[in-house]
Design a protein that fits this description.
Blueprint lengths: L17 H6 L11 H5 L5 E5 L6 H12 L10 H6 L9 H7 L5 E5 L8 H17 L12 H10 L2 H4 L4 H20 L4 E5 L3 H9 L2 H16 L7 E6 L16 E3 L16 H10 L6 H8 L2 E3 L2 E3 L2 H11 L24 H6 L5 H11 L4 E2 L16 H10 L4 E2 L9 E3 L3 H11 L12 H13 L2 H15 L11 H18 L3 E6 L10 E5 L5 E8 L6 H14 L4 H5 L5 E9 L2 E9 L2
Parallel strand pairs: 1-4, 1-5, 2-3, 3-4, 13-14
Antiparallel strand pairs: 6-7, 8-10, 9-10, 11-12, 12-13, 14-15
């Protein structure tokens, strides 16, 4: 075991700031030799995609502190020399002389731009831009900026304005505003480091406000990336590549480096190599645990190179190297750090919609086998609600659940689960969806559909219902002697039951008297403050679906089915007419008020 000494560098997971690692005396795996590879690339627009918890943010922070100009003493790199002392980047004196401390830098992360609806997500984004602007508040004293330029910065620093409805236009132009101001002040083109660029659209696609968020993110990044001669270089990181149609319209100058890129000069820049892991374990006197770490946290194949997940290895060292550990570390079973390290919402969104052959491939993967997959090189987040299987498998590859089979050729499409930790994660989080004994088979889709009903998302509900019918209903299922509306009524009750159990909805009623009749289904949201009334119809001809759903909606209105919910104090009720034909349905919607 290691000696508990104040001089011993501490293992640290979760810290993503380079200066904290160095000044806090934490163990740092030196990746600075790759700063040149990242920054001196021929393309002035670079997008790096790696799985979650693979060291992207720490690398961006390292790059920032290496490049960033000394504000008070431009040209003075003495502080940089101290910060990077002993690290490999200083071995390349030509690169350091040319780039170290020579650029204005803007480092912005989209991580955390999320919300249950567009307004809350936009509020988070505006707050993030306000915080970014605060880093440059000193520019208000610059003698090189004119009054108009200071006014534009002042708008970003106006907290009340940035929290108002008018903030959207300022957010869209914020990055190019800072670009122009820094260029004027320093006379040097700035570098932009954009971390987790894809988070807002991922979240928006899951929560039903994709188009609204796209209308902000696309012009915001387009202004920065396309035909902007005022910026020296833009480097972005993320997990998934958005399609050109969603963000990068008309941009052909972006180089994309992914886990599947061939001739990958950045293959070892993110993640830990076997040698780096052995060196770290040896430092803490834990080299005898290398095989445990390899089985649980290794296995990622990037351009033929074996890579460990750095988050897992560091957490492992934190646990087994702690001075208060009483038991023999060799007996310490490696935990799964992957679960809970970040959201799995985008994975869970797809699970209820997968086909039987996808289930077979999932089972093969859990058995340790490799499978051949079709992987998309980019995703249109606006189409994720169509739940195409190729999108699901692509997400698993790019987020780190799957990796290239090291025994296959570099150009093959054969993938496997990388290690024991991810296999355990599959069993805990994913395999349960394919177990017919599991109570939670409908749990995910139940939550989705309940929220779509409560929020009045007509297009989303139509797609979700049809996907669910296709996945879980056989035409034979509804071939019963009893009225077929009864079958679909039971199907809806079973589908929404998990949402009621989880308290997403409450006061769920089936055929309860209200107004001048008995609506098929009614309930209220636990948090939304809205209610829902549903009337169901069945038709034998697909061509009659739309009219039948409209008739069902008219019945809700004419018979005042929302009366009980209004009497209970609700001020808004979502009325839904839903018509079924075999494994298909159509919906009609109207928002009702007292």
């Amino acid at each position: 075991m290691i000696v508990n000494s104040a001089a011993t560098l501490k293992p640290r997971a979760g810290n993503e700031d380079f200066t904290d690692f160095i000044n806090g005396h934490y163990y740092y795996v030196d990746k600075t030799q790759y700063l040149k590879e990242i920054f001196s690339d021929s393309s002035d627009r670079l997008l790096i995609l790696r799985p979650r918890r693979f060291g992207k943010t720490l690398m961006m922070s390292t790059l920032r502190h290496f490049l960033e100009i000394n504000r008070k003493r431009p040209g003075d790199t003495s502080e940089h020399e101290k910060l990077f002392k002993g690290l490999s980047v200083l071995d390349d004196r030509e690169f350091t002389a040319e780039c170290m401390g020579q650029f204005p830098v803007v480092f912005f992360s989209f991580n955390g731009v999320d919300g249950k609806n567009f307004d809350s997500a936009m509020s988070n984004l505006s707050s993030s831009i306000f915080s970014l602007a605060e880093e440059f508040e000193w520019l208000m004293d610059s003698e090189r900026l004119n009054s108009r330029q200071k006014e534009s910065l002042g708008n970003l620093l106006n907290e009340k304005l940035m929290r108002s409805k008018e903030a959207q236009s300022y957010v869209i132009s914020s990055l190019t505003t800072l670009c122009s101001l820094l260029l004027t002040h320093y006379g040097r083109k700035p570098v932009f480091l954009i971390d987790e660029y894809d988070v807002p659209l991922q979240k928006a696609s899951l929560r039903g406000y994709y188009q609204d968020m796209l209308d902000v993110i696309r012009p915001m990044l387009t202004k920065l990336l396309k035909n902007n001669s005022n910026v020296y270089k833009v480097i972005m990181t993320g997990c998934l590549r958005a399609s050109k149609e969603s963000i990068f319209t008309g941009m052909n100058n972006i180089e994309v480096n992914t886990v599947l890129s061939s001739r990958n000069r950045l293959a070892k820049a993110f993640g830990f190599t076997p040698d780096e892991v052995m060196k770290m374990l040896r430092y803490y006197g834990l080299e005898n645990l290398y095989e445990n770490a390899r089985l649980w946290y290794d296995g990622y194949s990037i351009d033929g190179n074996d890579m460990f997940c750095p988050w897992d290895v560091t957490c492992y060292c934190m646990d087994v190297a702690t001075p208060c550990m009483d038991s023999d570390p060799a007996l310490f079973e490696p935990p799964s750090y992957w679960n809970g390290s970040s959201s799995n919402d985008i994975i869970r969104e797809f699970l209820p919609y997968l086909r039987s052959d996808d289930s077979d491939m999932m089972e093969a993967l859990i058995r340790g086998e490799s499978v051949q997959l079709r992987v998309s090189d980019s995703l249109s987040y606006g189409e994720l609600n169509k739940h195409r299987p190729e999108h699901f498998w692509s997400i698993l590859v790019y987020t780190g659940y799957l990796t290239k089979d090291r025994n296959g050729t570099k150009n093959s499409n054969v993938f496997r689960i990388p290690n024991a930790e991810i296999r355990s994660c599959f069993r805990d989080q994913i395999a349960q969806y394919y177990d017919p004994q599991e109570k939670g088979v409908f749990a995910n889709i139940s939550e989705i559909i309940a929220n779509e009903l409560l929020e009045g998302r007509e297009t989303n509900l139509r797609d979700s219902m049809n996907d669910t019918l296709a996945a879980f209903v056989s035409v034979r299922d509804s071939a019963v002697r009893a009225p077929r509306e009864n079958y679909y009524h039971g199907f809806i009750n079973g589908l929404l039951a998990p949402a009621a159990d989880s308290k997403t909805i409450r006061d769920y009623s089936s055929n309860r008297e209200s107004g001048d009749g008995y609506p098929d289904v009614s309930f209220r949201g636990s948090e939304s403050g809205t209610g829902t009334v549903i009337e169901l119809k069945h038709v034998s001809d697909m061509n009659d679906l739309k009219k039948a759903s409209e008739d069902a909606l008219s019945q809700i209105i004419s018979k005042n089915y929302a009366e009980r919910l209004f009497r209970d104090g609700l001020t808004e009720v979502m009325a839904w007419g839903i018509a079924f034909c075999g494994r298909h349905c159509d919906v009609s919607f109207r928002k009702l008020r007292p």
